[in-house]
Amino acid sequence: MIRKILAAWAPMIALAGALFCAPAGAEEAGRTPVPHPPKGQGEHCVADTEFMRRNHMKMLFHDRKETVHEGVRGEKFSLAGCVSCHAVKGADGKPVAFSSDQHFCKSCHSYAAVKIDCFECHASRPAEMPQKAASAPADAPYAAIASYVRDMKPEVKP
Amino acid sequence: MTAPDQNTDVDRRALIKSAVGLATVTLAPGVTLYAFGVEAASAPVTSAKRWGMLIDINKCPPGCDLCVTACQQENGWKSTGHPSTDAQWIRKVTLRDPETGKTREAPAMCQHCATPPCVDVCPTGASFKRADGIVLVDKHICIGCRYCMMACPYKARSFVHEEIDDQKTVAPRGKGTVESCTFCVDRVDAGRIPACVESCGVKGGAAMIFGDLNDPNSEIRKAVSAMATTQIRADLGLDPGVRYRNL
Amino acid sequence: MAKLKFQTLNRQSQSFWLLIFFHVALVAIGLSAALYMEEHGHIVTGMSNQIVWGLPHVFAVFLIVAASGALNVASVSSVFNKLAYKPYARLSGILAIALLLGGLAVLVLDLGRPDRLFVAVFNNNFKSIFAWNIYLYSGFIAIVGAYLFVMMDRQVSKSTVAGKAMGWLAFVWRLILTTGTGSIFGFLIAREAYDSAIMAPLFIASSFLYGLAFTVLVLAMMSSQTLSDLMPDEMVEKFSGLLVIFALATVYFTVVQHLTKLYSASHRDVEDFLLRDGGVYPVMFWLGQIAIGTIAPLAILYMRGKALSPRMALTSAAVLFLIGGLAQMYVIIIGGQAFPLKIFPGEKVSSSFFDGGIATYTPSIPEALLGISGVSLAMLIVAFALRLLPFLPQGAPRQS
């Protein structure tokens, strides 16, 4: 709870900080700290970075009712997929948990001060057999993806 | 980058099948969506099936806890050294007839009732029964009020009292929410049997049968039709999906 | 009838400020305790997978039950036309709202995921008594609020019809609300100590008792604050008489509840546990609820005017009734869970999950503080409201 309250205030503090630093940052690009989330393991993500930045939360939220309540499995995108492909190895060579600042999701979310509670229940490390990215079967479900994109379309912003 | 034209029929015309066998969709210049190693989504479960379990106590040797350890392995719950607050999805209960002294052991877990009291009392609908009879907790909307634990006659549910950070991918579980046996729902959806049943069958006494109680040709249906079985606390009229033999 | 006059609380003695400070401190400590519990999980409480509802629920249910009863004085005045109670109707209404808020705050802060309260607002399972209660509680606050408006607004209060209609609505609503609270337990078929329709009338009888006891204590405190006599001798008599009736009604339903279960062979052991063998629970019941919470205050009220001043007797009886009420809730809520579920009736059972065993419960300090802070929160809300608006009747200047 304490952390949540801090998390709630953080954007304002961050905003104040950003306003304060803005002129300097504009002149000296590179001085503004930005997160450097680690690269995923596959060739590329399920969508372009720009799209993912804006829409990953909706893509995750989208299927949960169907999967949990109706047993619809094999949905197009899954949190387990993200966790698997974006696993970051720690000093011990094992994938780090969300508690680590190196965690893919954490690296951005702590920067943006957006508290997520996905990993209070979901595994933040991949299962024993990491899923390899970018291996679409020949008969990939184009129609399904298209309809998914149609769902997402209004949300796409440049 | 420009905003996508909302009136364009993106789905068909924009589909491009790339050389490496990826499905890609161009939403707008510079925005491409890929789909990876996924099968087509399965259809929603229906009430045509009713998943159930039959446990033959005579084949359940005392001291054997293969079902319990298999469940722990599969779903990631374990002892943290706080027995009164640690979660237990399945446990072996020792029964002793107070008059004759006859002792036996029975695994006890969520009985996946047809009319589950936990579902009735849940204020948010987090405790729910799937169409195919599996009773689950949707931890996205569980507020941790524990009313389901008050209502369950089988003491099947546990409240997560501590933070957890080593969950299994297939079994999300977290502090402040309630959990219980899921019949290994992800395995069932993939056409497999629950971990406890598998372990008992492979290494144990093969005391557990899992299957569709509605299917006249299923092993479980044949077994419950052939010989008398017991539902625990049948007097409550909840019609549990778990049945016992020789209890 | 002479026009009733009301006053705000505009004189605060040093001891009153001290009391306010005490309540503020308790609320602050209670909130910190809730944060601590939320941060670490319920592992830092005495609650477990056996005793899933603990001391916070004892206080929360106690306050919620008392809230509906506190409205009683208002109901008596407008529904049953007893003009003597009219001066106390406003106070009764605001006290009801405050007690309910205090109880709900404790209940909500004890949730495993209090941050998801909005989930409970937007996802409702209408078969759940808890979900009904969300509407019953918020409806209660709205209706009593409107009732207060009808009583206090210069224009609207001239209409006797409006007052009467709101009085009836609030009265019926509070009966349904307490039925709902009792049914939280009454509908639990699995637990032998509950599972009985009598929980609803038992809770209603208790609510009359606790609610009036709270009202009396607030009036006594405010009499000394305003240096005026808010309870004339006539009212002391009336309140004492009502408390006796309500205490007897509570005892009656308690006796019937236990006798019903004692008569059934299958429930004998749970009754033996709660009334004789259960260690702390029989002590809570016989010493807390019956001796301290019923017999002693009834004896004190009986002796009023003889060995004790009527006023002194009334306030000390009210304190004892409230202590007894907490003991009663403790026995019902904790005792009912401590007795093991009969999953395999007729068998002696044991397991690593405490099947067949009596559950132990030792409340931790944070959960106790959270529970107590609910009472303080209710009292602070009352004090604030009394300062803000004329809820208190204008009594005769104090003769002393």
Proportion of residues in extended strands of chain A: under 5%
Low-confidence stretches of chain B: 1-23
Q: Counting H and I runs of at least 4 residues, what is the number of helices of chain A? A: 7
Largest sheet of chain A, if any?
none
The amount of beta strand of chain B, in percent, is 15-25%
Number of domains of chain A: 2
Number of domains of chain B: 2
Task: Tell me what the structure shows.
The complex is a heterotrimer of chains A (158), B (247) and C (400). Chain A has 158 residues and is an all-alpha fold. Chain A folds into 2 domains: 1-33, no CATH class; 34-155, no CATH class. In chain A, 49% of the residues lie in helices and 0% in strands. Chain A has helices at 2-27, 49-62, 64-70, 79-85, 104-112, 118-121, 142-152. The two termini of chain A are 35 Å apart. The relative contact order of chain A is 0.15. Chain B is an alpha+beta fold. Chain B is globular. Chain B folds into 2 domains: 1-38, no CATH class; 51-245, Alpha-Beta Plaits (2-Layer Sandwich), CATH 3.30.70. In chain B, strands 1-2-3 form a 3-stranded antiparallel β-sheet. Chain B has a 3-stranded mixed β-sheet with strand order 11-4-12. Chain B has a two-stranded antiparallel sheet with strand order 5-6. With 400 residues, chain C is mostly helical. In chain C, the strands form 2 sheets. Chain C has a two-stranded antiparallel ribbon with strand order 1-4. The longest helix of chain C has 31 residues, at 233-263. The model of chain C has no long low-confidence stretch (mean pLDDT 94). Chains in contact: A-B, A-C, B-C. Chains A and B meet through α3, α4, α6 and α7 of A and α1, β2, β3 and α5 of B. β5 of chain B pairs antiparallel with β3 of chain C, so a sheet runs across the interface.
